[in-house]
Design goal:
Layout lengths: L3 H9 L3 H14 L4 E7 L14 E4 L3 H9 L7 H8 L2 E4 L1 H8 L5 H12 L5 E6 L7 E7 L6 H28 L11 H11 L4 H8 L3 H15 L4 H10 L9
Antiparallel strand pairs: 1-2, 1-5, 3-4, 4-5
Helix pairs in contact: 2-7, 8-10, 8-11, 9-10, 10-11
């Protein structure tokens, strides 16, 4: 059973890093010593958006992350495809059935071969319920080496409800915490000027409020747009807001 102290710990943390540290240690107690969380707010019918805008959290080794994420093997991963089309939890035992029935394409089989080379052979995937068509989040729970799928399924039969609940809580906590994306970090000044724009202030207003010149304010806005890889200030405000980069209470 999940105890209240653990839940209170998760919902009380102030950084994603602290949350992830708690969660990885808890999942390891169930036998899942390597986990990977992914979330996008920029999904369309044909794309998951720019990978640099993904929220990716993992304690896999760097070589695995480089292959799976940076080389975009995830795009052909069978359990990622499952997560995009479903909500809830799914045993990786479905992969064996798909292989035996010839239901996996060559690229999907290549991903499974890559996973086997890295000891990613047994586990469970959880696909979180989306609140908008453009959002999707999921987590892959990889069992420790030497733990086969039958063992994983028995663990899930005993503790699956608790594991699912904990992961749902962590997913919701991540949505509420500031997330600094790869190459998307904003300076305090950039966050501040975007916050004033979100409040409806003009460049002249912001200059007065911050004790800067209008030219300097425009510079901060331009650098914020560049950091967030967007074309307009409105887009910058939206992206910063989606990742809780504005109006932050520093821990």
């Amino acid at each position: 059973m999940i105890d209240s102290a653990r839940i209170n710990t998760l919902v009380s943390v102030t950084t994603v890093e602290e949350l992830w540290d708690h969660h990885t240690r808890r999942m390891a107690e169930f036998g899942f010593d390597r986990i990977m969380y992914g979330f996008t707010r920029y999904r369309t019918e044909t794309s998951l958006g720019d990978p640099e805008d993904f929220v990716i959290l993992s304690n896999h080794d760097p070589e695995y992350i480089e292959g799976f994420i940076d080389q975009q093997l995830y795009f052909h991963a069978p359990m990622v495809r499952w997560a995009l089309e479903n909500d809830g939890a799914c045993s990786w035992s479905v992969l064996r059935a798909q292989q035996e029935n010839g239901g996996l394409c060559e690229r999907a089989c290549a991903v499974l071969d890559f996973n086997r080379r890295h000891g990613v052979t047994a586990g469970y995937s959880i696909s979180f319920k989306s609140v908008t068509p453009r959002c999707k989040g999921a987590i892959a729970l990889t069992a420790r080496r030497g733990m086969d799928q039958g063992h994983v399924d028995r663990v899930w039969a005993r503790h699956g409800d608790d594991i699912l609940a904990l992961n749902n809580i962590v997913h919701l906590c991540i949505q509420a915490l500031p997330v600094t994306l790869h190459r998307r970090a904003l300076t305090p000044r950039q966050r501040e000027v975007l916050g004033w724009v979100a409040d409806g202030k003009t460049t002249q207003d912001i200059a007065l409020l911050m004790g800067l010149t209008a030219t300097t304010v425009e510079k901060h806005l331009r650098l914020a747009r560049q950091a967030l890889n967007v074309e307009t200030t409105a887009q910058a405000v939206l992206k910063a807001a989606l990742h809780n980069q504005m109006f932050r209470l520093e821990p």
